[in-house]
Amino acid sequence: MPDRDVLMVIAEDGRVIEWQRRAEEMFGWSAEEAVGQSVVALMRELGAGDRGRRGSLSDGAPVLVRPVLHGTSIVWQVRAAADAVSQQDVAVLKAMFTQSPVGIYVLDKQLRVVRMNTGTRWLRDTPVADLLGKRFTEAFELEDPEEELAVAHRVMESGVPVLNRLVRASPVPGLHIRRIYSVSFARLEGGGGDVLGLVASAIDVTERENALERLALLDTVRARVGRRLDVLAVCRELVDAVVPVFTGIAVVEVIEDVVRGEDPPLVPVGQDVPLHRTAFRGRISAYPVGDVRPLPSGTPYSHVLSDLRPRLVPIDADSAWLTADPARADSIRRSDVHSLIVAPLALRGHALGVVSFYRHQHEDPFEEEDLQLASDVCAHAALCIDNARRYTRERTIAATLQRRLLPQRPATPSSVEVCQLHFPGPEGGGVWFDAIALPGARTALVVGDVAGRGVAAAATMGLLRTALHSIAALDLGPDELLARLSDTAIRLAAERAALPPGDPLHRESLTASCAIAIYDPVTLTCALARAGLPQPVAVFPDGTSSTLAVPPGPLLAGTGNAPFPATTVSLPEGTTLAMATAPLADAVLAGPLRPLLERGSELSLPELRDDITHALTHDHRTDERLMLLARTKGLPRDQVLALSLPPGPEAAPIARAAARCQLDAWGVDEEIAFANELIVSELVGNAVRYGAPPLQLRLILDEMLTSEVSDASICAPHVKHARTIDETGRGLFIVATLADQWGTRYWDQGKTVWAEQSKGRTSRSGLAGDFI
């Protein structure tokens, strides 16, 4: 359907090639008269005011002239306009199409360029004549032409303009440069509402977008790099953040000492200092991640470590420094790399490593602005790596301290077999275990846990463990041991609170938990108490198990004066006692691995421990965990003498005779036996004089020779220093002199005074050999 607003169409040579009916009405010439005539001659005649014609310029008939594409040629349409176009309007349009820096492009309904701003050339320095008549996607070589065509068609169909759409152009051949434009599309409509085409405007925003991308990248690096306190993890986070947003290939190489947590060296870094390839992302790596080697001299990488200045290095086949590292040169060539930035990882004049950014294939080459961005990125990464290095160093110190404070060679008492399962935490911690030998062949089994991580937790653990060893020498029950250990923890907590407010330890409260079990191989009983830790489990020789009902006590250093109740249970010979911190107790003692623990009654403790460890292989917990396994043994009856004594003076001779006979049967060295007679005599004499019946003598032959005298009095014995003329008062002094150690153990209805001696050499076949 013909356009009713079109008056005439004029060819490029000025001849009228179409003359519409409305032109006949306005100017008075018929189509036969006007077509083929020069429009200049017709207008000249019209301007002469020929009265024979029906219209003239003085009639005030306004028109508009616009170029359109006709086949492969440009023709000019003369259209009737509703309003006259002023000279100012014409001047504005002329300025916009000849001088404006904003690209303006008139597209017909086929999206072909029919007119364009001659003041800008969009992407290419291409003559206007070469672009007219082409589809705009073909003329300007867009990166995604199909998407832009779809957008233009939607605007033409809906009439809804699209504003400030970012459009990327294909790179300029040979320069690896791609431009970014902000493009707007608006529909062109005629006076009758018919669609004539589109007007597109474009502004080069390459620099603005690059600057925004740099800021966004820096924000991304600051948000994503340094989330983990691990040097290798930080380096992986760095390459993941910059590839492919900033670079196609990234390599991070850190000085090996820094990876291990040591202090970084000062600049310049020696040529023989090895670097650890900690992270890589890209196509082809010259060396595998984890490779350790010095950087080749005479390259940008080694230069950066000598002065800590970043370098922008264009790469071509003639780059002489590539010969210094053939493997790296080969990977650069195979990856089609054309631009490189090498930036230092440095902090306060110390070098931590280097980062290499490579752009390859069709990526834009690096610019000077990219050099500053790479420096900012590496500055943040260096700070994160140094934090991780310091953390690694502290973690190593904490783990080493904890390892040194734990038993180096766990005790192997004859009455119980002990085996521990320890999963150290990544930052060290405060868990500990112990097997402490007590008088009478008894053994104290201990599991403890100081809350917290690092050096502070390990040091506190060492203090509590040392205090417990000292308290255990008092031969107290497990409830009394926990009470006194809690008193020690309270004093340590008070010392923390008294530290200056700026001290980090001042803000960390001291909380600890502990469980103690004292096993007696003579009576086959075990006294237990716990402060915070889960209930122990006993697996009996027949494979059945029982969670021991040990009442809970408060945490060590806790508030209040709640007691630590103790429980005594019978444990037959061959029973396995399991005590653990909370994470392992949840999984093994009261969790899905409980059957594995029960089936382990026929295995040795090391085999049982290995089975449990294997079952926990896929448990990805990172907190510190510990379990103590102890298998009970009974002391043979022939190694124990128990004798009830009368309450009178005759008790001492009876005790001496019984002891002499038993020690002779055991083959104890005569000197040890003589000293033992004196010890037994003095202990029994004190019990007769100061104690209360019933009296009992018990001799135990195990790692040590133990002499025990029990009575029903709770009066505390103590050493007296008698004068030369005194006839009494030397009993405990003699005991203390002859025995290796002595002490008193209290129980519900009395006390036991004991003394231990080294056994010496035996001579009987049943007990032959050296006793240590």
β-strand amount:
25-35%
Q: What would you call the structural class?
A: alpha+beta
Strand order across the biggest sheet?
12-11-10-15-14-13
Tell me the Rg in angstroms. Answer: 48 Å
Helix content: 25-40%
Strands, total number? 33
Q: Count the helices. How many?
A: 21
Distance between the termini: 119 Å
The average pLDDT is 84
Report the major sheet: 6 strands, antiparallel
General shape: elongated
Unreliable spans are 50-60, 722-729, 761-772
Description:
With 772 residues, this protein is of the alpha+beta class. Helices cover 33% and strands 28% of the residues. It has 21 helices and 33 strands. The strands form seven sheets. The protein has a six-stranded antiparallel beta sheet with strand order 12-11-10-15-14-13, with helices on both faces. A hairpin with a 5-residue loop joins β21 (537-539) and β22. α14 packs antiparallel against α15 and α20 (670-690) packs antiparallel against α21. The longest helix has 38 residues, at 368-405. The radius of gyration is 48 Å and the shape is elongated. The model is unreliable at 50-60, 722-729 and 761-772 (pLDDT under 50).
Write the layout of secondary structure elements.
Layout: E1 6-10, E2 16-19, H1 21-27, H2 31-34, H3 39-47, E3 63-70, E4 73-80, H4 87-98, E5 103-108, E6 113-116, H5 128-131, H6 136-140, H7 145-158, E7 162-168, E8 180-189, E9 195-204, H8 206-224, H9 231-242, E10 249-255, H10 256-259, E11 274-281, E12 292-294, H11 300-307, E13 311-314, H12 326-334, E14 337-347, E15 350-360, H13 368-405, E16 416-423, E17 430-438, E18 442-450, H14 454-472, H15 478-497, E19 512-520, E20 525-531, E21 537-539, E22 545-547, E23 552-553, E24 566-570, E25 576-580, H16 582-589, H17 594-599, H18 605-615, E26 625-632, E27 640-645, H19 651-666, H20 670-690, E28 695-701, E29 705-711, H21 731-738, E30 741-747, E31 750-757, E32 761-762, E33 769-770
Parallel strand pairs: 20-23
Antiparallel strand pairs: 1-2, 1-4, 3-4, 5-6, 5-9, 7-8, 8-9, 10-11, 10-15, 11-12, 13-14, 14-15, 16-26, 17-18, 18-19, 19-20, 20-24, 21-22, 21-25, 25-26, 27-28, 28-29, 29-31, 30-31, 32-33
Helix pairs in contact: 8-9, 8-13, 9-13, 13-14, 14-15, 19-20, 20-21
